Amino acid sequence: MPSQKLKSYLDENKIKYVTMVHSVAYTAQEIAALVHMPGKGVAKTVLIKVEGKLAISVLPASYKIDFDLLKKALKTDEVRLANEQEFKDKFPGCEVGAMPPFGNLYGMETYVAASLVEDEEFAFSAGKHTELIRMQYRDFERLVNPVILRFSSKRKV
Fold this sequence. Notes:
alpha+beta; 31% strand; 5-stranded mixed beta sheet; single chain; YbaK protein; 23% helix; globular
């Protein structure tokens, strides 16, 4: 079952979603392969620190953060990956590395890569390394109100 906080939030807001169970996988790209979805359709949640504050960045599994683009988009030089110690206790009910991209539920700003908003649906980890939620992107955007920025580039395979 997805994190109870997330499931309750989606249900309270009458959001239609599908939960998918898969074998244990730790990267969004692995998950995409397991559930037979393109990497662009599975989002990964990457925790970052912007001027000392935790924030969530969300981008397609097959993309990577371009920190130069992110710094420029946020008009700051203070952006870096957060380390596990900085966020492991911020997502109760979620396994570390499987946090859903709902910064609003955890008191964090959410930045979404423009490359993710091009598709109608997307999927993301639901709080466990064995669960995924697929839903309409427009519903996610309505609930989370993320900042959409250009900060990702396709990962070279």
